[in-house]
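Subgroup meeting minutes
Present: P.N., E.W., G.H.
Scribe: E.W.

1. P.N. recapped why we're keeping a running log of single-chain structure predictions: easier to compare across weeks, and new members can see raw inputs and outputs side by side.
2. G.H. added today's entry (78 aa).
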Amino acid sequence: MSEYQEYVKERDQIDFLIQNGYRVKYIAENLDGALVEFEKNEDLSEKKKEILNILTPNARKYLSAKLLGQQKAANSVL
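Output recorded in log:
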């Protein structure tokens, strides 16, 4: 798979999780990319978690932009 196709696949996975109510909880960078933990609160007692391994640099940049947007939205509510 070309690097662009890999980026599109990772971008779509990120968008899918965010559109379904998941929020970025934790990011661990390593030499191979980034492990990103997403969390969704179903109700007060149940939380769903998903972990993505983001490999391409462009997808990591895209994730950074989404994370900044998530933080801005959280700050504007306060």
